[in-house]
User: Fold these one by one.
Assistant:
Number 1:
Amino acid sequence: MNVIELDKQYIANTYARFPVQLVGGKGSLVCDETGKEYIDLGTGIAVNSFGIADDEWKAAVVAQLDKIQHTSNLYYSEPCALLAQTLCEKTGMKKVFFSNSGAEANECAIKAARKYGELKKGKDCYTVITLKNSFHGRTITTLSATGQDVFHEHFTPMTEGFVYATANDLDEVKTLAKTHNCCAVMIELVQGEGGVMALDPDYVTALAEFTKTEDMLLIVDEVQTGNGRTGSLYAYMQYGIVPDVVTTAKGLGGGLPIGATLLGARAQDLFTAGLNGSTFGGNPVACAGALSIINRLDETLLKGVREKSEYIFNELSGAKGVVSISGKGLMIGIECEKDASEIIAKCMERGVLVIKAKNKVRLLPALNIPLRQLKKAIQILKEVIAE
Ligand SMILES: Cc1ncc(COP(=O)(O)O)c(C=O)c1O
């Protein structure tokens, strides 16, 4: 049996995969089992921040592998401590909990919020307001936090304690805060899976103010928007707010699984020994790789992200077949006249990998994609959209 047949027989049917097996590559070029090469504008859904087999990231990972691959959280470990220090110094957050995925990072944030509510307003204060059309993960609790009914089907009863407000409607948040005993508001600043929709800056500023006056935590889910993706280290930095909790994963690891929950001043002391934990969380190899990624997200790199973003927006805005373009930095959604799946398949035929978000074509290229490759890929995409 070939790999596709093996997969179909033995892997749980949770993924609708493209009929392609990716076997290798370098940077933003990836190749399949036949040797066909593609320009990768998907990066494993915003994970391979510096593309495939990046030399600096690989060196950091291999150097750590030569020392020790895992310690458990019963012992101290340098890569984990250094990564936490770097994240805190670069964000102003105070403490970090490491896990292995975005969903787990969000689970930790929700635990922090419930503990905060209990401390401040008693045991009944556990409701978290999230936004309609959001996506926060696949565990039962993070699915419950996800404001899209379609994700709740088949899995009821969901974890209780989540209510949903329409994005950019502060009055709705205020009403929910009045009618429920709320400990936190949790938002994505650019709703990724929901169709790459950036929140309105005035709404975000007012929301941050509201959570402060109401003594609720503001949790920003930067699983997809974080780590340079939107043109700043974290997207909240462009909104001029200071969240109480920031969650991240995906691009932080550069290709290895890691989740991080960054706790700000109001949240830093909520956890005591035993209140959360993870066997693999803070794994030294994942942390060593992540540290090399974070250290490279300097102003020069971020400026490059913003410039490439501008190039894509300029090329595609008003182009034939394009209805609208949304997003921030190198997290872009393109609404097209034609069906997105058809465009994705045609791009693949022509050697460009793009993905989908709702009915849009989504682009999440490597932060350091060479301009030459980006230009070539965007021209192909433009032609396919216009056909
Ligand atoms: C905003 C956001 N939060 C959480 C998640 C879940 O992350 P993971 O798949 O690593 O659990 C995702 C994944 O797409 C995401 O985009």
Note: The CA atoms of residues 100 and 258 lie 4 Å apart.
Number 2:
Amino acid sequence: MNNPTPLSEENIQVWIAKLRSMRKYHTLDLPEALLRDLIVEEFARQSNPDKALQSVREKLHNIVAPYLGDPDYFAAQTAMQAAFASGDPQFVRDFCLSMLASHASTRERIAWLDNFYTRLWEITGLPQSVLDLACGMQPFALPWMKLPPSTRYHAYDLHRPRVELINLFFELSGRPRLAFHQDILVEPPTIPADVAFFFKEAHRFEQRRRGACRPFFEALQVRWLLVSLPISSLKGTRNLEQRQRRLMDNLLSGQPWAVEEIRFETELIFCIRKS
Ligand SMILES: C[S@@+](CC[C@H](N)C(=O)[O-])C[C@H]1O[C@@H](n2cnc3c(N)ncnc32)[C@H](O)[C@@H]1O
């Protein structure tokens, strides 16, 4: 058994500053709660500070997922303002498509965007409130969700520039600025809502901390929790369906919740009725 490396508050602050200044993260302004959580957890498991830091870096790489893609946020903001200023809804949709295409998770959905959300609402009913947990670029699919302007759409992500761009999009669309820069594993949202999306992230939550999903699912105050998992690898070469089904079976075993499934070509959605 390793003796954990003792960590002072000063050390924690030094490591947080080091991680934030890394080239691939310095523009993202990652939440302190996320960095602190990873540092405290990995230093408690490792006696060697270099190894602890290495494993913090590996985890951060998987969580922040720079390989999934990011637009140039400054250029995106200018393009979005021009699209709204044109007054032509088609320009706004074209801009939204370019944002969906900039990130691997949403890019995969573009082919069935026209009926993706309709199929969800057939099960849940049209929601008055939505939590988009670990949202990535999904809020830019709002024009295809066909939600009324009164639906309150809360979105959560770790990337500050992404959250700011989403808030500007909400504002220009006439919706409240409800995108939050928050680590939802450390601070699960407790706002009551009709529907929560937790798309393509549950398996990664479990990689970050084994056992994290169950208490997270329980903490959410939502009627419907929609959890999706990718069923093919990013390169499309491996079929992950059986593995993902086993993961969900484990996460839901012993829970009284009813579950319905929707299957798209690249994604399996578990529609969990929580109340
Ligand atoms: C695999 S992408 C999925 C994006 C989106 N849910 C979708 O399916 O289109 C993961 C996203 O979750 C965000 N994320 C990961 N862990 C998070 C956390 N603990 N709190 C908030 N956001 C998180 C990442 O920044 C990234 O944008």
Note: The chain has two domains: 9-64, 104-273.
